[in-house]
Task: structure prediction
Amino acid sequence: MKTTQPNLVQLGKFLSMVLRHRPEVIDIQPDPQGWVDIDVLLTQCHTHGKPIDRPILEAIVATNNKKRYTISEDGRRIRAHQGHSIPVELGYEPIMPPNILYHGTAVQHVEGILQKGLLRQKRHHVHLSADQQTAEKVGIRHGRLAMFHVDAGRMQVDGHVFFCSPNGVWLTDHVPADYLKLV
Ligand code: HQG
Result:
């Protein structure tokens, strides 16, 4: 008998959408820290035509290219590590950043960034990468690549606060243009 393999990438994108941006699409309500009960999530996914069961969910979490999701220690809840546009309090502790962080973007954004610095736009934070290769992948999502080096060491000395999500994305509120170098 021929079985159809679930498309984990596609289902992962769906999960990202409902956990970070539009939970109302499947009628779920993440708690203030962004957690959703897994039984409720799976039931609501089924109801809305996305047949995700527990093994599929665990496969999405394990194989996701950016390790976007985490399951709680008791195995009952799931949330995304970062990147939400819905209001959530992720509870990360401030942490000292490396001296240089990287931000990849597209050339059409460069002028605005040089004027106003890096703004968090629709997300909760500005997202920065610890290595240039990752930042390149982030940037080319938007168009022709432009790369900024961020003087994170000096920002921290000047009082800016940084967080690092468990999947290694560096987060801060705003990067004034003075700390940016277009490379
Ligand atoms: C740009 C993905 C004009 C900024 C990735 C970026 C990342 C400005 C865009 C995560 C600006 C926002 C985040 C200014 C910032 N003027 N443009 N003043 N300030 N911008 O997608 O950093 O797949 O919200 O350069 O891997 O590209 O979601 O942020 O180009 O980690 O898990 O405004 O999203 O992860 O775009 O990506 P985004 P991002 P996920």
